[in-house]
Amino acid sequence: MKEIGGFFELELDRGREFHERAFALNSARNCLRYIVRKKVIKRLLVPIYTCEAVIDALQAEAVEIISYNIKDDFFPILGDHQKDYLLYINYFGINSKNIGKLQKIHQKLIIDDSQAFYSQPISNIDTFYSPRKFFGVPDGGYVYSSGKYEKKNFEISVSYDRFEHLIKRIDLTASDSYSAFKKAEETINSDPIKKMSNLTKALLKSIKYEEVRAKRLENFTYLHRALKEKNELSISLGADDVPMVYPFLTRNPTLRESLIRRSIYIATYWPDPKKRIPTGSWEAHLVSNLIPIPIDQRYGKDDIDAIVAVVMDNLHI
Ligand SMILES: Cc1ncc(COP(=O)(O)O)c(C=O)c1O
Fold first, then answer.
1. CA 88 – CA 75 distance, rounded (Å)
2. Which amino acid residue places its CA nearest to atom 7 of ligand 1?
3. Measured between alpha carbons, how far is 90 from 47 in angstroms, rounded to an integer?
4. Residue 262 burial by CB count (10 A; 0-12/13-18/19+): exposed, middle or buried?
5. Measured from the CA of 31, which atom of ligand 1 is nearest?
6. Residue 135 to residue 248: CA distance in whole angstroms
7. What is the pLDDT of residues 37-74, one digit of tens each?
8. Which helix (H) or strand (E) covers residue 187, if one does?
């Protein structure tokens, strides 16, 4: 019987999820594993510029990985592999135009929209998402896959024990909460495929998606106007693109450290602990020199101005 009364749970808005029609799971890597099982994929074309979580998920499913390179516009360099499934990453949430082109030349596509939460799926193309790259939620993944979802076999995940860093950062600082964040991330890696937890779902129903979209686009455009002349990447957003970060590519070996020293936290996409990426390749250049600058909904023009000041200061040294 439904529980009624007693103490209150965390009070959240009771809105709607953005990806209401998707199958909601516990992480993006598990969405990929789900697709692999559902489509019985044995071999997969995978970009060498990717995160370890993707490689680990595929290895856990005993998928043979055929690596491919990307060009400086993030478009795949493909050999004669038309019959194989191809995994394409919508890098930084700014590559929907590439997906449009790819769709015309490759039949069996899987789209990794982990960095492109707002990108709509294309019908009959399996696509997955990782909401916590865009919002303060502990875990979760959404997958769209053609054919019926086998929903019954999976238990429902729980996330309350992955929540500490999210609330701690409100009370304290990012550095105070970092070890809790790392701990939470480690537990995601070891979780089998499960349905999204009630907690993550409730949080994802409380987000003002259109406000976030507008803010991200505004910040990105403002930052691009300031940095585009210095950026090795030539960027033009597609109609559907809502960026995760602003990718700034420059051969400046001290910029990342300078930003971090000013408490502007810059991730590395992606560390390459197993040395999969050849030295001297375009992808190695991206790993070393791409600075993903935050442009998310927490920030506004003053913050972007502060970031630009550090970047300019550093580039002029
Ligand atoms: C491109 C990409 N795909 C998939 C993943 C895995 O997402 P999740 O952590 O939700 O499993 C990540 C990050 O870890 C990623 O960067």
1. 9
2. 28
3. 11
4. middle
5. 11
6. 22
7. 999 999 999 999 999 999 999 999 999 999 999 999 99
8. helix 174-190
Question: Tens digits of per-residue pLDDT, 8-36?
Answer: 999 999 999 999 999 999 999 999 999 99
Please give the number of the atom of ligand 1 that sits closest to the Cα of 50.
Answer: 1
Residues 6+ apart with CB under 8 A from 211: 297
> What DSSP assignment string belongs to 36-100?
HHHTT--EEEEESSS-HHHHHHHHHTTPEEEEEEE-TTS-EE--S-TTSEEEEE-GGG--HHHHH
Give residue 62's region: left, alpha or beta (phi > 0; psi -120 to 50): left
How far apart are the C-alpha atoms of 86 and 304, rounded to whole Å?
Answer: 36
Protein residue closest via CA to atom 2 of ligand 1:
114
Q: Whose CA is nearest to atom 3 of ligand 1?
A: 114
DSSP 8-state code for residue 279: T
Token pair, residue 226, equals: 């300031």
> HSE (CB half, 13 Å, CA atoms) of 104?
5
Query: Mutate which of 30, 44, 51, 91 to test ligand 1's pocket (most atoms within 8 Å of Cβ)?
Result: 51
30 Cα nearest atom in ligand 1: 11
